[in-house]
Design brief:
Strand content: 15-25%
Radius of gyration: 36 Å
Structural class: alpha+beta
Helix content: 25-40%
Distance between the termini: 113 Å
Number of helices: 18
Largest sheet: 9 strands, mixed
């Protein structure tokens, strides 16, 4: 028996592949099972054109046998088998794929598709085995052949005995090392878990002898081990079934079987696309937010299958960040796989699928908002924050896609409303969409800045999330209506005559306000008479794009520059305190200094801003008490 050498290029490729291409050793089982499935598919294709062949699907299977005593793992299939020439060409020349050649000769029909393309998956067996033996008998042949190799050193081929058509691959599993535990690939429960993970939806039965326990015959307490052949794969995936065959319970069962979450899915999306790219998908909107959702440990992504074989556990490229809460899977025969089938080449098909999925998710959320408002609000309480981050990210490039999904609490209804609902009920004379930012709705209700807007009967949106105002700054306008903070310097609202200053008042008050502005130099950019205040004596407003709430959020971030809003101290000239200010300006500048400091600190407290010197503030209060 002559030992043959791999070609020099093939030898180098084998060494590189065993050590570099595959990142997880367990992948070898996926590759060998995929090859076995291909071998059975080839008989199916031949039966389509050969009247002498009858394809009875029940007669075809793949069997996995673990032998701990002899440290062998055997995979047996009832597929088309290989001739001596096939063994020479397909296993003797690395990266020459018999499946790819067969695929070119026989176009896929009836939804079947050959998986193997590169001809390297078989050699992943050397990651776990010292010796790989292949015994195969080809369809239509009476002779079987044995191919055997210890790796890069070469291989032998000789005649062998085999009763039935098909292929048997026997792996001599490596001994354990300090760093590697190879025993796991001889453990039936570990093997079963690997099969369920990667090959659960191979269309042919994958059989194993599973050990169980039972009472010994005639005994009431003594148990014995026994083995029973079982199908360990599901075979027909749920996504390939007609939607009409499936119930809500079927989808929920799949959600839990795939460990997408411990909750019930709020909504599912079942997609069967047959166009520029062919794929099936089942997507779920979870009911509850995962505990690690806003942590670095959270991984977004969908399970990715190619013809029922798991390629990636988390394919992040299929989901945009703003829909990262979606769970589920995609199966496609249109994808271009890389050599290890562990990752995708970033190709046009993948982008088309991702774009289509994003559109489907948005459509389902819009439908939920329209038809099942209570469920949508439940979803929004969990994941609305992520939608707002999506509006803000990438310089607002996704705002048009997401803005109709946003909701905020309203001053009128005290419940969540959409931007569309807000605009639809705006009075004709209202120019802006008004909003107020704060830690809670209760605190916002007490803000002096809301007085004028509320008095006009205009609705205010409550921004209580730190992302809210940043997201709205990206949207800028909605249905031609600009957003306006109630703390903005100009609210665009006409006020009653008794709230405005006469020209004479302006001249009289200018010196007072200039004096107060000088006292608060570096703290405020201006002091002026307020057009918005009615009951309250003082408040802060802002000029420019940075509001007070934005200042607080930005300054709370690590390594962030000291951002300051352009604050304006507004004084209610119709309040009793203003008379005291004027009197102090005329008679007692020291008292005016005290009043100015008190009013400024009072305005800071209203906004939830820290006092520069709390001790001085308490001392100032004591001064007016004596």
């Amino acid at each position: 028996m002559e030992k043959k050498q791999f070609q020099a290029e093939s030898k180098r490729l084998l060494e590189m592949m065993i050590n570099s291409i595959y990142t997880q050793r367990e992948i070898f089982l996926r590759e060998l099972i995929s090859n076995a499935s291909d071998a059975i598919d080839k008989i199916y294709y031949k039966a389509l054109t050969d009247d002498t062949l009858v394809f009875d699907k029940d007669s075809y299977f793949i069997k996995v046998i673990a032998d701990k005593t002899n440290r062998t793992l055997t995979l047996r299939d009832t597929g088309i088998g290989m001739t001596k020439e096939d063994l020479e060409n397909n296993l003797g020349i690395i990266a020459k794929s018999g499946s790819l050649a067969f695929k070119k000769e026989n176009e896929a029909k009836d939804g079947h598709n050959i998986i193997g393309q590169f001809g390297v998956g078989f050699y992943s067996a050397f990651m776990v085995a010292d010796v790989v033996t292949v015994i195969s008998r080809a369809l239509g042949s009476d002779v079987a052949y044995k191919w055997e190799s210890t790796g890069a050193d070469g291989y032998t081929i000789e005649t062998a005995e085999k009763d039935a058509v098909g292929t048997e691959i026997i792996l001599k599993i490596k001994d354990n090392t300090e760093d590697e535990n190879f025993d796991e690939f001889l453990d039936e429960y570990r093997l079963k878990a690997i099969i369920k993970k990667y090959s659960d939806f191979i269309r042919y039965p994958i059989k194993m002898d599973i050990t169980g326990k039972r009472l010994k015959e005639g005994s009431e307490s003594d148990f014995e081990d026994y083995q029973e052949e079982q199908h360990v794969n599901s075979m027909v995936p749920i996504w390939r079934k007609n939607k009409s065959e499936l119930t809500q319970e079927d989808y929920e069962k799949f959600y839990h079987e795939k460990h997408y979450g411990f909750d019930k899915p709020l909504k599912h999306i079942h997609v069967s696309a047959d166009g520029a790219v062919v794929y099936q998908a089942i997507l779920f909107v979870p009911e509850n937010i995962p505990f690690d959702y806003y942590s670095k440990e959270y991984e977004k992504g969908l399970e990715l299958y190619a013809n029922g074989v798991l390629i990636m556990n988390k394919c992040a490229d299929l989901l945009p960040d703003y829909f990262s809460f979606v769970k589920g899977m995609v199966d496609s025969e249109s994808l271009s796989l890389n050599i290890s089938r562990e990752m995708l080449q970033h190709d046009r098909q993948l982008k088309l699928i991702a774009k289509n999925i994003s559109s489907k998710i948005k459509g389902q959320l819009q439908s939920l908002l329209k038809d099942e408002r209570e469920k949508y609000e439940q979803f929004y309480k969990s994941f609305g924050r992520q939608l707002k981050f999506g509006v803000y990210s990438d310089y607002g490039s996704h705002k048009d896609l997401l803005q109709d999904l946003l909701m905020f609490h309203s001053s009128k209804e005290k419940k969540l409303v959409t931007l569309d609902e807000y605009v639809a009920r705006m009075p004709e004379d209202q120019k802006y969409i008004y909003y107020a930012s704060g830690e809670s709705m209760e605190r916002i209700d007490k803000l002096p800045q809301t007085e004028l807007v509320t008095d006009k009967g205009y609705e205010i949106l409550y921004f209580t999330d730190d992302i809210d105002e940043f997201a709205i700054k990206m949207i800028m306008t909605y249905k031609e209506k600009e957003f306006k903070s109630v703390s903005s310097g100009d609210l665009g609202i006409e006020v009653d005559d008794n709230q405005t200053e006469t020209d004479a008042d302006k001249n009289d008050n200018k010196e007072l306000f200039d004096y107060m502005k000088d006292l608060l130099s570096g703290k405020v950019t201006n002091v002026k008479a307020s057009k918005r205040l009615k009951k309250h004596p003082v408040c802060l407003s802002t000029d420019g794009d940075v509001t007070i709430e934005m200042e607080k959020i930005l300054n709370a971030m690590p390594n962030n520059p000291n951002v300051k809003a352009e604050k304006v101290l507004e004084i209610n000239i119709n309040h009793e305190v203003f008379a005291s200010l004027k009197d102090a300006f005329d008679k007692d500048k020291e008292k005016l200094n005290l009043y100015t400091a008190l009013l400024y600190n009072q305005a800071l407290l209203i906004e939830g801003l820290p006092l520069q010197d709390p001790v001085e503030f308490t001392n100032d209060i004591c001064k007016i008490m004596v």
